[in-house]
Design a protein that fits this description.
Strand content: over 45%
Largest sheet: 7 strands, mixed
Number of helices: 0
Distance between the termini: 40 Å
C-alpha cells in the first residue's frame, strides 16, 4: 500500500509564501516522477510542477519564477515552495507520484489534497 501525505497548506495574503510538503510511504521500488497539481472550484485539475528522479523539473507557465519544486529521494519527499502568491493560486493542491513496483510496473498515486487560500 502506497500513501502520499501532504502538509503545509493554509491561508495567506497575496504576495505571501507557503511551502507544501509531500511524503511517500509504502512498498516502493522507485519513484519516477513526483509533482503537484491543483484544482480550483469549477475548474479541471491542472499540473503545477513535476520533477523526475534525476531532478529535471517542469513548471506550468503560470507559476514560473514564483514556485520552486524540489525532492529528497532518500526521504521520499517532494516540496513546493510558493512565493509571490496570488488570489488566483487559490485551489486544492494535490501531490502526485508515479511509482515503480518491485515487479517493474508503474502506478499513479495521489495525496488527499491540501487547501491553499490566498486572500487579496
Amino acid at each position: 500500500q502506497v500513501q502520499l501525505v501532504e502538509s503545509g497548506g493554509g491561508l495567506v495574503q497575496a504576495g505571501g509564501s507557503l511551502r507544501l510538503s509531500c511524503a511517500v510511504s509504502g512498498s516502493i521500488f522507485s519513484i519516477n516522477i513526483m509533482g503537484w497539481y491543483r484544482q480550483a472550484p469549477g475548474k479541471q485539475r491542472e499540473l503545477v510542477a513535476a520533477i523526475t528522479s534525476d531532478g529535471t523539473t517542469n513548471y506550468a507557465d503560470f507559476v514560473k519564477d514564483r514556485f520552486t519544486l524540489s525532492r529528497d529521494n532518500a526521504k521520499k519527499m517532494v516540496y513546493l515552495q510558493m512565493n509571490s502568491l496570488k488570489p488566483e493560486d487559490t485551489a486544492v493542491y494535490y501531490c502526485n507520484a508515479v511509482v515503480r513496483s518491485r515487479f517493474g510496473r508503474l502506478y499513479d498515486y495521489w495525496g488527499q489534497g491540501t487547501q491553499v487560500t490566498v486572500s487579496s
